[in-house]
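Bug #2210: token dump truncated for Oxidoreductase?
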Amino acid sequence: MIRVAIVGTGGIAGACHLPALRAQAHRAEVVAAVDVDEARVKAFCAEHRIPVAYTSLEAMLAAERPNLVHICTPPHLHAAQATECLRAGAWVWIEKPVCRSLAEYDLISSAELDAFASVVAQHRFGSGVRHLRAIAPELGRALVALCVTAWYRDHAYFDVPWRGKWETEGGGPTMGHGIHQMDVLLSVLGEWTEVRAMTGTLDRRVQTEDLSMAIVRFSSGAMASVVNSVLSPREESYLRFDFSAATVELRHLYGYRNADWTSASPLWNPPEDVPSSHEAQLAELLDAFERGEAPPMSGPEGRQALELITGLYASAFMGKPVFRSDLTVDHPFYHRLDGGTWS
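Reproduced locally. Full output below:
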């Protein structure tokens, strides 16, 4: 059995990670949970029949020696917690956003000696995206794409102390919400080369943006329009890919099935119907663990969306186009997504 621990016992752990782990109960066993709030972690363990509750990650790693740790804490904690787990020999699966900067991501990668880090990107693993990637070469040249995350979060949503702050969340809806759709965009169209962007804080009482818009050019020559909002009462996640021979569209909200996709192309006929979900990605991560191979959404693949987000923020703050090649270690936005430095 693969020994699994959960770090952070807030909403995402119970809503998404535990159901995924229950589906893999034949080969993965949750042996412990960790949270700085002792009452919360004990209640979580009692509710989900997890044997041991800890308030210290260090103590849990020493005592339980898990094979895999699910990191479900706020973003500003991810880099330090992930590197601690990796150095203890445990693989990590990190909730989005994976961390607050490319510098932190590269720090995590540098700790991958005997273990791997993988980023939660569940929308890559539904059958619709898989099928689109498989047939894309037959649809002709990729030309135009639309990538819209039009979500709604009211003022109360940002009352959670770590939300809406550069220091603790790392960014706004570009970072914490639109990352899902942008990751799918990248998985289909590949490497981007240039981004031109604007951000705004129109209505929510936050330090970060509540809206961003961007135009992205890809190495293939394709171009995409990207919108990320938490101001949209009629919520929708929308992706459109215009190839030279066909259009493929996806309309959903927080997850999709095959029925959410449309295309007039006779090639559009996914052979199976697998929803986008943590469960679908976890199955592949565990397969990789059993083979001793790097899992999906590790290394450069796990870095892709964060890299585009970095370029988007840099373009918006600097008021000029940003090229992917610009984002080296000496670029100010490599270290922090508002261009500053951490204290």
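Output looks complete on our side. The chain has two domains: 2-119, 123-275+305-326. Marking as cannot-reproduce; reopen if the truncation happens again.
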